[in-house]
Amino acid sequence: MTEYNGYSFFGPSTLKELLEEVALFDGSIAFLAGGTDLIIELKKGKKKPHLVIDVSQIPELNGVHEENGFLHIGSATTFSQLARHPLIVEKGLCLAQAARKIGSEQIRNRGTLGGNIASASPAGDCLPVLLVLEAMITLQNPDGVRRLPLSQVLQGSGRTCLTPNELITGIDFPVLDGGYVSGFEKLGSRTAVTVAKLNLAAVIKVDQENHSITEARIAVGALGETAFRLPDLEQNLVGEINPFLLHLFEDMLTETVDNAISGRYSHPYKREAIRGLAEDMFVNLFGASSVPGGRTHG
Ligand SMILES: Cc1cc2nc3c(=O)[nH]c(=O)nc-3n(C[C@H](O)[C@H](O)[C@H](O)COP(=O)(O)OP(=O)(O)OC[C@H]3O[C@@H](n4cnc5c(N)ncnc54)[C@H](O)[C@@H]3O)c2cc1C
């Protein structure tokens, strides 16, 4: 353990070591993963923990594997790893797409999936994605382990259900195969390192033979305190794929924006912008021919 800038610093190399220290330590603790959010908060004095524990060097918290039809991701896995991991690209593509669109290369090399969840930003890019993937989050402290759906972990802007000494250890979700397509779209400002002004994630199950959608999961971010799913829209998308589906998608997303942020400064802009994201999403999921005039996805 070393002293730094008024707090103690500990860098365990196993989860066991970490949990033993957490059990013994009498004072406030902050877990440090990539540090892309936490370091800023420490510098600004927004957080003043007695102990900072670096979780980035613990092998159990790092990497992706498949087991019994689920993808398991260690909480300290970085966006760069997620963006190119073959299992994520093949069986959870929307997460790879979100990871590729986060911040700058430096941020992607440091920032982690666990940090994105724990920060609970309304605009966190992986949060709508994990909602449509129906991800479960595993939390652990010295007293035990619990596994909760993300919707229960997220409690508001910057707020989660984590207790002060609780660590996110992993994220898992059922693999997407057998007819599933998925995608992520985001609207930021022109600078590469900005957080999203709107983000949109989708998982769709397509029955190619009958040219229909048999299951739809849609979630949006940056429209409220936390990202959220859109059950009415999801229900309406199920059925035969027809030329009017994009209009329905755009109209119901616009209605979502109206209901979520009516009267806010950003409302007129976001209700137009979401239609563009809807179109991008259709091209992403179904190809250029799915939108009027056809175009490439970019
Ligand atoms: C320039 C810049 C650009 C950014 N762009 C984006 C963007 O495009 N999209 C986006 O979503 N975000 C963006 N962010 C925000 C940030 O990069 C992400 O939220 C990232 O996921 C945070 O992860 P981290 O590993 O760096 O977390 P850290 O900074 O290490 O930690 C963040 C918080 O989570 C807690 N924490 C971390 N790991 C755990 C764990 N395993 N268990 C419990 N608590 C934990 C920490 O204690 C802290 O409270 C950006 C940030 C910057 C500075």
Oligomer: single chain
- Low-pLDDT residue intervals, each spanning 5 or more residues: none
The CATH topology assignment of the largest domain is Uridine Diphospho-n-acetylenolpyruvylglucosamine Reductase, domain 3
Q: At the first level of CATH, what is the class of the largest domain?
A: Alpha Beta
Strand order of the largest sheet: 5-6-11-7-8
Annotated CATH architecture of the largest domain = 2-Layer Sandwich
How many structural domains does the protein architecture include? 3
| Count of individual beta strands | 16
**Beta-strand level of the residues, as a percent range?**
25-35%
Bound molecules: flavin-adenine dinucleotide
Helix content: 25-40%
Provide a count of the helices.
12
Main β-sheet, in a few words? 5 strands, antiparallel
